[in-house]
Fold this protein.
Amino acid sequence: MIAVDLLVVVPLLGALACLLAGRFSAHGARWVALVFTLGFGGVLVSLASEGAFSGQVVEGIRIAQDTVPFWDVRVDGLSAPLLALTALLGPVAVMASWGVADRAPVHHALLLGLQAAVAGVFLAADVVLFYVFWEAVLIPMYFLIGVWGHEHRRHASMKFFVYTFAGSAVMLAGILIAIFTIGATSIDSLAAGRVALGDPMLVFWLLAAGMLVKLPAFPVHTWLPDAHVEAPTAGSIMLAGVLLKMGGYGLLRLAIPIAPSSFAEVAWIFALLGGVGIVYGAAVALAQSDLKRLVAYSSVAHMGFVLLALSTATERGFSAAVLVMVSHGVVAPLLFLLVGQLHDRTHTREIARFGGLGALAPRWGIALTFGALASLGLPGLSGFPGEFLTVLEGFGAWSWPVALATPGIVLAAAYNLRAVREVVHGEVAGEWAGIRDLSAGDLVPVLVLAAAIVTLGVWPRLVIGMAGDILGALSAVIGTGV
Amino acid sequence: MSIESVVFSVLGVIAVAGGVITVFARDVMRMAIGLGAFLVAVTGFFVYWGAAFLGVVQLFVYIGGVLVLMIFAIMLVHRTPEGSPVLETRHDIAALAVAGGLFFLVVTALSGAVPDSIDQGIASGTGELAGVFLGPMLTHFEMGGVLLLAVLVAVVVILGGDEG
Amino acid sequence: MGALLAQGWSVVAVPLVLAVLVAVSGRALGRFTPVPALAAPGFVLAFGVTALLEGSHAVMSAGSVEWLAATGANGLSVGWAIDGLSAVMLVVVGLVASLVVLFSVGYMSGEGGLPRYYAALCLFTAAMSMLVIADGFIGLFIGWELVGACSYLLIGFWFTRPAAASAAVKAFLTTRVGDVGLLLGLAVLWHEVGDLSYAAVFAAAPALSLPVVTAASLLLLVGAIGKSAQFPLQIWLPDAMEGPTPVSALIHAATMVAAGVFLIARSWPLFSLSPDALAVTLVIGGVTAVGAAAAAVAQSDIKKVLAYSTISQLGFMFAALGAGAWGAAMFHLVTHAAFKALLFLGSGSVIHGCGTQELEEMGGLFRKMPITGVTWLIGAGALAGLPPLAGFFSKDEVLHEVLGAGYAWAAILFGASLLTAFYVARTTRLAFFDTYRGGGHPHEGGWSMRLPLLVLAVLAVGMGFAGAWIAQAYGAHHGALDLRVAAGSTVLALAGLLAGWKVAGVDDPAASRAPGLAALMRTGWGADALVDRAVLRPMARISRVLYEGVDRQVVDRVAEGTATVARGVGRALTSLQSGDAQWYATMLGAGAVALLALVSYVGRGL
Amino acid sequence: MSLVIITVGLFCVGLYGVLTRRDLVAILASIEVMLGSATLLLVGLAAAGTSVGATEGSVEATGVMVIVLAAAEAAVGLALVISVARRFRTTRVDELTEVKG
Amino acid sequence: MLVAFGPHVLVIAGAALAVALDAFDRRALAVFATVAGLVAGAVTAFVSSLRSPTISGDVLLSGTGFSGTVGVIFAIAAVLMLGSWRPLSRAPFGGGLAALAGVSVAAAGTVAVAADLLVVLIGLEAMALCAYALVWSARTARSTEAAVKYFVQGAVATGLFLLGLAILFGLYGSSTSYVWVRGVMGTAAGPPVTTAFVLMAVAFAYKVGAFPFHSWALDAFETAPPHFAALLAGVPKLAAVVAMIVLFSRSVFAGLPTDYQLWVFGSLAVLSVVFGAAGGLLQSSYTRMLAYSGVAQVGYALVGVAIGAAAMTAAALLVAAYAVAAGAVFLAAGAFRSVRPDWDGTIGGLAGLGKERRLLAVSVAVALFSLIGMPLTAGFWGKFLVFGVAVSAGYWWLALIGIVASVISFGYYGSVMRALFFEPSPASASGGESDSDRGAESAVVFLAFVLLAVGVAPLVAGLEPVLRLFSFT
């Protein structure tokens, strides 16, 4: 019997251990961080024995039964895949930031804190706890960007914090209304007592606002490119990998269950935002001259798929949304990891300055090509099942208008392959003649992510199998129209 | 016209005149005189209403206070080239609006709530007063002591120290 | 045998595993890398033959897994269902692929990055197999996309050549446009039927309303057009010649580009219900056949000639499909696979021999490279449609069917075959006869290059007589030889050959007579320029405007603007703190007055 | 009523003085007028007997406390004014505008 | 009576002792005497907070949250006084200043629990008089100027309160105790009552520094000695807010239709929030920025006051959290100064301090996050409850304004963290001899720890333990 609570506790202990170890040796702190992030995975795996990955609900410990305890954590089919994602990206992020020299222990402690907070978001079964973790995520991320970021890190960190904090603040208003009109804080009871809401539409939009910013959906996405470009590699990995997922997760976990009928009423807006995001994000990505910014905008496009999938309000649509989220949660980190490794070597991300790197650093070149193909949704890789299902279901729900979003699919291929052509292919840029190819150490995280990408692409049921029941129930609730 | 109303009117006139002079006089001495007149008139009211003790307190506290005030005033007040102390006033519409508005609103609010004439006075000896202070108003008394302690220390701190 | 057949998945799995093996252990295997690479298509071939020998055109082996179902079955399964059609395709794929790998041993020797090359070939074999054995549209689509990816990788094999890199991207993007159509077609079917397995869709098809069927068919057609480089998506195939020649033979002549034809043949129960869709297919096929043939006439690069020729021949197949004869189309597909692969490998041997692709720098190679020459002549004859070569029979059947569909289109196709014979003769003479104009020392390749040529040559000769048997294998009727058509086309072919031969003698006649037209034809009717002006440049401009104009100037400006606004408000408010104590006191009093006023207002009940 | 008008009027006059007098000494004087008139109102209204069941002495006691309070205000105020005069060699409040923004 | 006033008496006694000790120039001892008085007062207050609420002599409330508030006020003050031990023991009349601080805190404690208009008035006055001197005690030109301006505005405010008192006492008086006035007044909501209501509301709004009665606060908190700014910024507000809700919503003016409280304090709240948040964005001076942010924080508290009795607990918790956090950040200013004697007082001047004094900087960050209202800090629960009550009272827009303003507030709170952690230390870092003020630093760290503890504990233990301290029933 392993307590679910450990998923929050272990990384926090890890953060402390990191700081302590840092007093003696920075390198030791790295290993400590790695061990604890792996420990997180270990806890999660051991939870499998209790059915955490077969859609079962695994409750955490309830402290202080008598009073009103906000601490109520559990793993269920919806959170399990995202927790697995968190477990996967934790070590990857640590390995990706192995070379951080400046205050490395603090850096890794913040990473672990971030992991704890994100895990908390996915674990929380109580809306207050959910919000607490939701906000707590900002703090380590803010410092990661601000301290270890690149040229414009100060502005970027401020923008990231204020922008997303604004979103979640609005969300807080919604949460408050829900709590104090329904008179409960556990998400289940909120969903159960939703009829008490005087103005569900207001509540829904207040809640959704925060999540749409986090996702991010067009037109509230502009914090993302800045944050990504300036963030250190590990920060980008966590940001793209799990932080963005909080948005979609929040919609499925909180906003839709509390106000399903309102959601059904405005689903078309979500479809619209999603469709626009798909095309817009891809088109803008096509215009980027900065490799990292390109990847950032591709995230906007992918999150557009999530919105479109959600808007169908069917079980399969929700499954598609989860698939896209998880897939993007491994593909984008891979790309950011590779871009980061390139930046470590060349200290630039200017696409124009590269060329023929495939000849100079074959391993890296192959990896980037692989990542690009995954990102453009090639079958057999993780991107395909979700986007494929999204289009099928989207057509079912919205019919021909969905065709307007499909140019995004071509554009996705365009910007990804353009990046490959300009950077990996083409004339060899003599500037980087002596560039180091990926070392074995660099390869480990790359291979881990690549393996995940292939696995998800070949066997998507791994993910949707867990969430199916919950999502089915959710779409059924929407069907009832209450 | 009863003797009461006559007394009342006289005191009122003095008080108003004194107050107005205090606020508008350019010359320090005039201001001092005006303030004195105002305070005396207030004292007069107290006595007239039978609150003799109150009057006495007022007299002592303020005559002392005002004397001190005036001495310092004449010491400190900014002087013209000719050497005569001048008190300048910047009349401004905002201040006038505030004062006027307050007057209007308060008076209209109180109109009707209070009788036109004073029909009864306050008659109480110092004994009763002591009784009150040691009885129901003990806390007030203590607080007054605290207040004076604060004043004492504050004044010492502010004036006692050299320009540290 | 049956045991093997039952395990349909293996025909995908084995090449896949071998691909991984080659990719991983390529460096270790060294010069033996091709061995496992050869095993992959070999297995496919063996499997296909086994299936073919079953002699049944119905489904012989099937199986599937629920793939995208969260819970239970929801019609999104992936699986295999091997029938005659798939068997024939498997044989084609396996055979050509094996020969191409064999050919590559000689052709690619000494190249860098061979593991990548052979791994991609194996992967392609796997993907192509998946495409053909799929039991439903999902499996087909997966294979469909994967072969595209392999094509991308192989065209860009020499990725440091900008031309190759660009060609790879161009190929992928152009086909991707078609794929989107296919995807939407699937969406329509999914929406209407709720199940994407062939069985379910075809069972439900007759019940569907005609507009739905037409819409679905046309969308599938879009996909086919993209893959098979039909008008208006033909532009990528000529550029694809940047890839290694064996790749061109396999992917861009024999198998992948034919997938479009296979798709329509496969979904015939659907297409056959929609006359409009068939009509469109016919039009596209006809236009492409003649247009591409004309473009081929003006090419100076031997591979470009073959590329346009491929487009044109695929046009024939589409025309046949449009005419309602999927059997004829498939037959032509099979024969074309043989003789076009032969021609490509032949050209490869030529290029290998004299190190150029320019016809101007060839000539008189027949004597210098006899085997290549002979086999080339056979292939050329087949392409031109000379009896009794394979091309003759299949093209005869196609023309016969189109004739049945309408004289106009038949006339166009006859014209196309005339042009075909013309450019065949021209190319052949320029390359193999007269005197050698190049600077190199042309020579035959090794046995590994000769053997495939011979095998394919044999097929190009013999296959024509196996028409009935092949048709029976995939269960289509095989009409007897239509002598009128045969005679006509033969005459046309001879005429074309003669003309072509003569013209080839003169120095660039077309250019001298009608330079404009020649240039237009050489550029494939200026399609690239058109696309560049109509699509690429506008798209680039739009995306730049969206980013710099909209995203930075508007969307982000608004977000950042809120901060500016807040500071502005702050500046206005802090101007109250003038430092004047009496002003502060005035504010205080004013506040009191305002509140008093407010309250007396509230008192009167708001 | 006349009492109210007189006292409130004086209060406002004093307030006006505080808001307009330039010299801290004069401001102090104006403050005295404000507080004095307020005290006057307090005692006066009580004397007017509008208050219910007044216990003997409580009014005077209250008045005394108020007077003490006003005196305290004046004392500290004066101390501050003197320190200002010492430091800035002036008691003009309009010359004290260093702290702002 | 003694139960109610006992704690205050202890504090005052400590202060008096401090005065005496100062006379013998034993400043350090004087400070400790004050602290001792505060601690004793806090302890007794906490003890009596276990009793049920009583009102002694119609004058002072005690028991439950009332004593609890007093205890919190004294406790915070005690920590802050300890933290300011070094500067005080070095300042001329340090003991006297300590005594003044003690007296003002005692007065604040009285105001918080007073049930008598006159006592409230005297208490406010005592606080004010001490505050003038404490602000002045920086002995700089700016502080003198600020003090005298503070005084001018204070005099007007006192006058207004006195006017209101005169009206109430004159009309319903002979006693100024809430119980009495309320009894006589009944539910009469005539113009005189509303007038008195507004006049007193203004006096309180001035005391807490709400817009447009805030000007003194900006100058005072900027120029005062940091350790006294720390004391004056938080503690009096806690007292005043509790007193306001008692006076305006629970006793004397409870008879008024709630519209009055809502409109008066609601409008003040919105104005203050907007002014503080927007104005803070422009400040370059660390302490002045904090002063501006204080105005915004008062706005949040006034949301609670506008709602009234229902929000009393929430508002008290919010202001208490603010008092702790404000104490920490202001005290930190002194600590910064001692680390960097050549600090120009600007936010930018703090560049790189995060590396030099990590624990101090992190604690400041915690306090700032609490001021923002981030979860995991006490500040979150304060806002959570206040806005929650506002929402449940149907004023979700009031809550939304507050929430959005707290987002804006990150603009200036964040700039401090940015300077501390993101900026490199200036090249000429070691200008002047740096000897860090351990006392102040450890006080800051302790306060930050309190904020964290109160912020995290409720997650697992529920809010009850925290709220028990501020339940006024």
User: Anything to note?
Assistant: Residues 58-88 of chain D form the longest helix (31 residues). Chain D is about 75% helix and 0% strand.
